[in-house]
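The protein record filed here:
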Amino acid sequence: SEPTLLHVSVPLATTVPFLFLRKEGLSKCGRCKQAFYCDVQCQKEDWPMHKLECSPMVVFGESWNPSETVRLTARILAKQKIHPERTPSEKLLAVKEFESHLDKLDNEKRDLIQSDIAALHHFYSKHLEFPDSDSLVVLFAQVNCNGFTIEDEELSHLGSAIFPDVALMNHSCCPNVIVTYKGTLAEVRAVQEISPGEEVFTSYIDLLYPTEDRNDRLRDSYFFTCQCQECTTKDKDKAKVEIRKLSDPPKAETVRDMVRYARNVIEEFRRAKHYKYILYNSPPSELLEICELSQEKMGSVFEDSNVYMLHMMYQAMGVCLYMQDWEGALRYGQRIIKPYSKHYPLYSLNVASMWLKLGRLYMGLEDKAAGEKALKKAIAIMEVAHGKDHPYISEIKQEIESH
């Protein structure tokens, strides 16, 4: 049956050029050479926002490095200057009405906001009028709680956006809708039967992990603990933290220690990826080594289907893709896909993107039959999540036909 499209929302502001669709032969801004557009019309429509950054990009050169949150906040301020009243994207909820959770911010989060405010003044002071400092603290807190990450069909990061109407939806670890993007539009589709009057829930976080980890993330980023059925029953937790079946089963303390190690190594890898690789240009082979050593250690206690093992496999797959080790990436993907399909909800973008990666790897390695099968599995999920008319689906069907 046709997927149910519940809502389409226009963004108040985004951090990427006007269109999220990839096209050949993009034109770029003649001045800064850093903003890319699909056509002249697209470029004209983005100019009120791009003019905030065009000149500073030229002036600062390689020193131009505001965070995505800073860029998004600058665009919100510019939009509010142009449209003091509600914009078309604020029919149901205005940005000024967003929850900020200001009273729950710890010192570390407040310091980060102050750093963002300093960067906002540093990069945008010539082209933007700022409200007072207290108002900026509130706005940054609101953006942090209500911003949306825009990703492509393989879940690669494209940018950030604010969709006020979509931000109205509450979170559940068993969501009944999914939010996807088409151009600059956010589209909300049902992935379960929804009765009249029933609340609509989306997911704010990656649902792979066990209850305690999910709620740690929700408390840290959104300041609440989820009370959905999955969090109350913890039905999936045992399978998500599956222990190896050994003749001498590991003691509970050993398992607890390994879970602690897993959480630490995930954070260590995240930091290494950012600091070592991005900032200091260390070779990606160092990142792959962290993945392999951690899997070896965790594998003495955890099954391959354990989500902590899967996390490091996924990271290793990403490093292999970056290093163009297609066979290595394929091997990791083949180990990941079955447990992913078990742990994630039925129409999961994470599962679809993994089938997509596998399909493209198979096709690139000349295994057309396996590639076509994997791509069709991705399409089956995406037709529900994205809608049958989404450009991504047309692109994938074209990939199948062209091989």
